[in-house]
Amino acid sequence: MSEAEGQQPPAEQQLPTYMIEGARSSRSRCKTCRRKIDKGALRLGILIEGPYGVGYMWHHLNCAARRQFDRVREAYREEAWLNAKEPPSKLPSLEALEVMQQKAEEKRRNKKDIPYVEIDPSGRAKCKHCGEPMEKGSVRAVLGRGVYFGNQVRVAPITVHPRCVAAELEKDDCETEVEGLIDAMRANSGEFDPALFAAAVADIGELPEGEPQPAAAGETIDIKPDI
After folding, report:
1. pTM for this model (two decimals)
2. Residue 214: band (very low, low, confident or very high) from pLDDT cuts 50, 70, 90
3. Is the domain of 27 the same as that of 48?
4. DSSP class of residue 14?
5. One domain for residues 63 and 125
6. Is 7 inside any structural domain?
7. DSSP per residue, 141-208
8. What average pLDDT does range 98-104 have in this prediction?
9. Domain holding 166: CATH number?
10. What are phi and psi of 3, to 5 degrees?
11. Residue 3 pLDDT > 60, yes or no?
12. Which of 51, 120, 157, 181 is 20–30 Å from 126 (CA)?
């Protein structure tokens, strides 16, 4: 019997629960945001046991901080970057990642249900229906558009001019219901200025199938054209 034949195979190496590293290629995708993780970008691997064995679920480190901060804290406590083949030379501090998590949590708390209206904050956005710029300080409507992943549908918010709402509602990928639209907008827009809301309703005009719209704040208003 040769020496090689007499040797026992080495025991399977125990993988660490977490790994923080710079991505070694651009083939992995973040399980939080579903986007590609670019080569060299910091990523957090969380060990799981699946139907095909044991392996890592990868997340952008920043995405993990926003959604799974407890996991990030554990990974930092275990110095998970030392588990990488090439430990990253620079890492954000845990305090900086915690600030990122707090801001993300505040944003989730303040997130409004679709549909609603809001004031354009910058003037940099374009209407997702007509493609024309939206003026800073103008009223814009937020509707839902379907994004399809096989049999799953994710509703993404899109911003449109009030005058484009009716046409957008007729598109096949619009996930906002026509029925009760104005009432839903009023309920979801928070403490929005009643006069601006009324003007937006007037700009929206007649909805598909001619559904009547209630007047804003229970009042009838006259919108006169500029002379």
Report:
1. 0.57
2. low
3. yes
4. P
5. no
6. no
7. EEEEEEEEETTEEEEEEEEE-GGGHHHHHTSTTB-S-STTHHHHHHHHT-S--HHHHHHHHHHH-SPG
8. 95
9. 3.30.1740
10. -65, -40
11. no
12. 181
What total number of domains does the chain contain? 2
Tell whether 102 and 131 lie within a shared domain.
Answer: no
Say yes or no: 214 and 128 in one domain: yes
The DSSP annotation for 66-116 comes to HH-HHHHHHHHHTTGGGGSSS--S----HHHHHHHHHHHHHHHHTPPPSSE
Give the pLDDT confidence of 178-206 residue by residue, as tens digits.
Answer: 999 999 999 999 899 999 999 999 999 99
Sole residue written with tokens 């007047």: 215
CA distances from 215 to 143, 166, 202 (A): 20, 17, 9
Compute how many other C-beta atoms are within 10 angstroms of the C-beta atom of residue 88: 14
Domain-ending residue, one of 74, 109, 144 = 109
By residue range, what is the domain housing residue 80?
13-109
Residue 6 lies in a domain: no
DSSP secondary-structure letter at 128?
T
Q: Distances in Å between the alpha carbon of 29 and those of 62, 117, 119, 167, 179?
A: 14, 34, 34, 35, 38
Q: Are 68 and 59 in contact (CB under 8 A)?
A: yes
User: Does the residue 129 lie in any domain?
Assistant: yes
Of 87, 109, 131, which one is at a domain's C-terminal end? 109
What is the per-residue pLDDT across 13-55, written as a single tens digit (0 to 9) for each? Answer: 689 999 999 999 999 999 999 999 999 999 999 999 988 889 9
Q: Copy the structure tokens of residue 175.
A: 């996930």
Answer yes or no: do 97 and 173 share one domain: no
Tell whether 4 is covered by a domain: no
